[in-house]
Design a protein that fits this description.
The chain is of the alpha+beta class. It has one domain. It has three helices and three strands, in the order H-E-E-E-H-H. Strands 1-2-3 form a three-stranded antiparallel beta sheet, with no helix packed on it.
Length: 128
């Protein structure tokens, strides 16, 4: 009998694209390539950058050296939300492998994005 090896499906990048297109607050996202998973599931590690500003340039002495620092800070989330999807293998096969894609993209657009935008607007607003 021949081997039957199913390839891994990568949905996270596509779901991130769905989120970016639907979100009102996506423009406030930071550069995700600099963020790392923390030790615990409810935290991330972000770079903190401390650098000097401009200084006078001298033709005889050249540029003034700077004293720049990058340190890492652990940030804890103040919420923990999620949902697990279970798609029957036969249902997925009978829908030519699109059941999970349809369910997850609909979930992101109609449930995740509105909640994330509302959360961000509430956090960014000034409390009186």
């Amino acid at each position: 009998m021949a081997n039957s090896i199913e390839l891994v499906k990568k949905y996270v990048d596509k779901l991130d694209d769905v989120y970016r297109l639907a979100s009102l607050t996506d423009v406030l996202e930071s550069d995700a390539s600099t963020v790392r998973q923390g030790t615990n599931t409810n935290e991330i590690v972000i770079p903190k950058i401390d650098m000097d500003g401009l200084a006078d340039y001298s033709r005889s002495g050249g540029y003034v050296d700077s004293d720049d620092k990058i340190t890492w800070e652990t940030m804890k989330f103040d919420y923990d939300r999620g949902r697990a999807f279970s798609v029957d293998a036969m249902d997925n096969e009978e829908t030519i492998g699109i059941s999970f894609r349809i369910l997850s993209s609909h979930f992101v657009r109609n449930k995740v994005v509105p909640e994330m935008d509302a959360y961000r607007f509430a956090k960014y607003s000034v409390k009186s």
